[in-house]
Amino acid sequence: MPLTTSLLIRGGRLLDAATRSAPFTDLLLTDGVITQRGEPGFPAPPEVPVFEASGLLLHAGLINGHTHGSTNLAKATHDRWSLELLLNGAPGWAANQTLAHKALNTTLGAVEMLQKGCTSCYDLTFGFPLVTVDELIAIGQAYVNAGMRAVVAPMLQDISFYKAIPGLYDMLPEQLRQQLDAGPGDTGFILRQMEEALQRWPHDKSQVQLGIAPTIPLHCSDELTRGCAQLAAKYNAPLQSHVAESKVQAVAALQRWGHSLTAHFEQLGMLGPTFTVAHGVWLDDDDMRRLAAHGSSVSHNPGSNMRLGAGIADSRRMLELGVNLAIGTDGALCADNQNMYEAMRYASMVSNVRGPDYTRWLTAPEVFAAATAGGARATGFHQAGQLAVGRVADIVFLDLNAINWIPFNDPANQVVLTEDATSVRHVMVGGQWVVEHGRHVRSDLSQLAQQAQAAVAELSVANAQGTYLADALEQAVGSFCIGLCRSPFHVHRYGGPLGL
Ligand SMILES: [Zn+2]
Predict the structure, then answer these.
(1) CATH fold label, 6-59+391-440
(2) pLDDT at residue number 1
(3) Ligand 1 center to residue 334 CA distance, Å?
(4) Ligand 1 center to residue 147 CA distance, Å?
């Protein structure tokens, strides 16, 4: 008989967001799984160690539906930036990272997420040829070492950003265009690398699985998109893509294909229950119906959408039409932090500013469900997202004596609208303690700070030419995209009138 590890958690209150309550509940964990949940003091074998949780509120670990572990070294490096300016600026932050930089970048995000109550994430990381298969495996190892669940999905593209948007490349200044590497990627190489990574993936898929992220539909040839869908089906790998994140993308799709990004992906076999749209700001009803019919998900990333001026997604309509809703922060380059409590609060508030009918605003229980059970479905970690018998013990322990919880009123509202991660005391993933007394137990922050500062210095030198070129192109790209955004479109997602 293999040895089993058990732990009894006694005296805590367990959040039941759906009923806006937090009854005192004891949990028995066996080998990282919740095997009993019941009234305080339920009988248990005397030899089982007890964790005393009085004064603590337990909730399921939050699940970040969309982030980029590749951008944590670049947090808060830019002020006014749209999505398209960020993509234009990629050579300034994405290039020339060594394996050590890539692992460190990933670790910084994992530590921040864990310390802020998030136990699983969907990481759209470096794609080929920026990353090798060995480096991708090392990025997965960074999550294993941090003690976090993750989908690691390389961002794939074979069409340059400058060629993806009709008309953009041709209007760039001639002398700058000559310095750009805007040629097509090697589709066959990208797909072969992706398949090799799927074949060689050494990590326990219940903790760190490999996904596939054709990054933006416009950046992928039909051959690449079809190839990604086929690999996903063959290896049962999850798929994610930035679909209709910006109005630029939505308008450019109509210009290029005569139909929407979602319709295009449906034609190429991308939609299905393991497919997640990141953002989905500019989806219309028809797009949402297509996603719902295939059982697909949307990761709603309201902080990033506001930060990049992408607009306000209609999360209520997604739920009404049957789309599974998850919530994400997005990467540190366009969210500046990795705080899922903040993402939940934003998700609540941006649904309110869409209109005066308060009966259509997202409720706190709906937001919490999206950030837990919805994320579990989108990531494929189906045993996470809920503290119930048979589910994994991914548990956040909040201090009810922290100022956010004084006084204790409605715990569903309070976890979504009041909590800011400063009450997180302990976090376990699969029954293993990864955060104790607010600190990640497997890392030394002062050492991480030294490594990160050195990496930033190295990368600023290595990427100086890329940064120079991006800065030189910024105004041309920015003004072209503003012009595109002023063209008529049948949905409106900006906070203000069109064109202002
Ligand atoms: Zn993203």
Answers:
(1) Urease, subunit C; domain 1 (2.30.40)
(2) 46
(3) 8
(4) 23
